[in-house]
Amino acid sequence: MSDLAHDDAVAARFARLKARERILEVSGLVKTFDGKDGERTVLGGIDLVTHRREFLCVVGPSGCGKSTLVRAIAGLETIQGGEIKVAGRRVEGPGPDRAMVFQGYTLFPWLTVLRNVSFGLRMAGVGKVEADRQAGQWLDLVGLEPYAGVYPAQLSGGMKQRVAIARALAIQPRILLMDEPFSALDAKTRARMQTYLIDIWRKIDVTVVFITHDLDEAVLLADRILVLKANPGEVVELMEVPALRPAGGRSLDDPALKATLTRLEQMIHRHEPSDDDREAGAPVVRLAAAGDEVD
Ligand SMILES: Nc1ncnc2c1ncn2[C@@H]1O[C@H](COP(=O)(O)OP(=O)(O)OP(=O)(O)O)[C@@H](O)[C@H]1O
Asked: Where is the segment annotated Disordered (predicted)?
């Protein structure tokens, strides 16, 4: 594809995305916490619109409020200003239209894989036989049907996260909220999980909000990337990733993705905490950059 045809195809893709229904609308979101030195504003007025079936990544320095934002969308935090709407309805607390997957393995160790996945369905009043049938289908989707009868302790880290994804999706949420779900996994497993997740997301009607520290992961996965800065957490930019989704998945060799990555790194570098912040005891913040691994 020529550069121009590629740019046109990307523009058409974003036009289609933005024509879709608004699933998540965050306006003027303010979140404060009481600390020993008084009230601290963690999120200082966040505005964000995410469309149906969009894949949104959230990046920003440690402590900028990524988890707090996602927890607020989940309905797990009281907010001090603004509002959050999911499919047009104001969020007042947790609900089945939103499901979460965390970094740590949060499966119930005393339940089999199948029962872990059917748990939410049973809680929602679905009968045992039907809940198990549906759970089996979700396990099939994440490629773990053969492990239905085993216990989480018998699974690898990547498999546990696939079960956690199946469990979250089983209640058919509108939004899947993922807080650094792959960051405890080794690089190879993590790459495989990214591919699995994109395959699953393509097959079902769900909008993903995915927090990551890893900018490579963000450009490989996202339609758009929400870049936050810290103290207080505010939106720096909602960046469109100018790439299509080829059948074999995106590659960091794609010049458009390389350029996006460079721009992201520069943007985050500009918003890193100053020496004054560091001296004041704020956590030293940086994101791992491509080609900058420790050995
Ligand atoms: N329950 C709480 N009480 C007081 N302060 C809190 C609470 N939860 C979070 N904070 C503070 O709010 C700020 C934002 O935290 P949050 O975990 O949302 O950031 P983050 O961007 O997800 O960080 P990280 O990348 O390190 O996970 C931090 O300074 C944190 O200490």
From this structure: 271-295
State how far the Cα of 202 lies from the Cα of 35, in Å rounded to an integer. 42
State both tokens at 285.
Answer: 């913040």
Distance CA 163, CA 107 (A): 8
Say which residue, 278 or 26, is predicted with more confidence.
Answer: 26
- What pTM, to 2 d.p., does this model score? 0.90
Would you kindly state where each structural domain of the chain is located, as residue ranges?
3-97+173-279
- ipTM of the shown complex: 0.97
Going across the sheet that includes 98-101, the strands are 98-101, 175-179, 207-211, 55-59, 224-229, 234-240
Closest protein CA for atom 25 of ligand 1: 62
CA distance 90 to 87: 9
Please tell me the residue having the least CA distance from ligand 1 atom 31.
Answer: 63
